[in-house]
Design goal:
Number of helices: 4
Radius of gyration: 18 Å
Largest sheet: none
Distance between the termini: 60 Å
Structural class: mainly alpha
Helix content: 55-70%
Length: 109
C-alpha cells in the first residue's frame, strides 16, 4: 500500500476542520441561550433545508444495485453509510423525528 503524501494528509485535515466549523455553526444556532430573534429563525429556516440536502447527498450514490449491493461501496446493501444515516435521522429521541412527528399530527387534524 502506498503512503499518502503529506500535503494530501494536511489538505484532508483542513477539509475535516472546515466541515466541523460549519456543523458547529449550525449546532451553535440551535443551542443559543437567549431568545431567538427573527433573523435567527430565518437563518434556521434556510439552514434546515441545506442540512437535509447534505444528508441526501451522503446517501444518493449508496443505492442498492440489481444484485443487492451498494452501488458506491460494493458491499451488501444497506452499506454502513446508509445504515448510519438512517439510524441517526430516525432516532426516536432526535429533533428531526420529533419535528416530523408533530408536523404529521398537525396535518392529520
Amino acid at each position: 500500500m502506498s503512503e499518502i503524501p503529506r500535503a494530501q494528509v494536511d489538505a484532508n485535515r483542513l477539509l475535516h476542520i472546515d466541515l466541523y466549523d460549519y456543523l458547529d455553526e449550525a449546532e451553535g444556532l440551535a443551542s443559543k441561550y437567549m431568545t431567538w430573534g427573527a433573523d435567527d429563525i430565518d437563518h434556521a429556516r434556510s439552514m434546515i433545508p441545506e442540512l437535509v440536502l447534505i444528508v441526501r447527498g451522503m446517501v444518493v450514490k449508496h443505492e442498492s444495485d440489481d444484485g443487492g449491493q451498494c452501488a458506491a461501496c460494493a458491499v451488501p446493501w444497506p452499506c454502513d453509510i446508509v445504515g448510519t444515516v438512517h439510524r441517526l435521522v430516525t432516532d426516536p429521541l432526535s429533533s428531526f423525528t420529533a419535528i416530523l412527528r408533530d408536523a404529521r399530527m398537525r396535518r392529520e387534524r
